[in-house]
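EI: anyone free to look at a 294-residue chain?
SC: sure, send it
EI:
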Amino acid sequence: MSCLITNLPSQEIWVRKEYLTDHQSGWGEFVKGVWVSAKSIPGRAFYFETYLPEYAAMYDKLPISAFVARPETPDPDLDLPNLQFWNCMDYGVVAVQKQFIGSMDYECYTRDFGPQKGTYVCTLDNYHQDPDVIDYATSENPAEHKSHNLIELQNGQFALYPNNRIRIYDNSLTPKEPKTPDFKVSTRYYQVENGHNRLGMGNEDEYFWKTAQERDSNPVKSSDFNESGAQNDQKGWQRQKFHGKWVGNSIFGKWIWMGEQNSTTKNASWDCKWWFNSKKTWFSRSKRNSWKNS
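SC: here you go
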């Protein structure tokens, strides 16, 4: 994945020329360009690299405030802190286009200029790229991480805004009066291995393995049904002799037959225990009796 620099969509833009002269001249002038890449340096605004066709030149390290969609001074004219809410969070950076929300309407809640409407371009996101380097940043801290959604505003400027400072409206899915979010910041680290019941897999070699808890509640292993000599009947059930009992397996679960092998005779008597996959428990049944939990 990218470190320091990432490719951008080849968006045609205009560069405010004062940014090309280190703010010494060129105010009110514009130079046509195409975005090439973005750089992420912690503690700074994103730096954009732009190709300038009429000069056959590349110009690097300009903030988002240097660009407009049309060669005219925007109204209102937002400064950099109103166009990018947070600095870069790490050297690791990726640019993605979130297709599902790409064509929806956006509303950015700025610091000083109220809501500003716009359309989606792409998203810049930070991560910690090297596990051997101390992570002094907050790109992977759930309470502090922010995505940077790149939005083309209706006033002609571009903005980099986090999810919790924008509203996204879809003509089909969003109601006429959407609710005001009452969410809290996510502060928890979610994971599924530590802090839960131990799986106890250290001595398990079954392909269709079970956890220790599953083995305690259902001691029959998959290997009980797949040794040589197993038979398949016309219904696709597999059965074989196991410790003096007939055992089998089907798509519904496992069964243990206690009684006569052939239960189709009129006077046969038998008992059966069945492990239902969907119920996660054993049930028992005798001939012409209903299922009972055992």
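EI: The chain is about 5% helix and 35% strand.
SC: 👍
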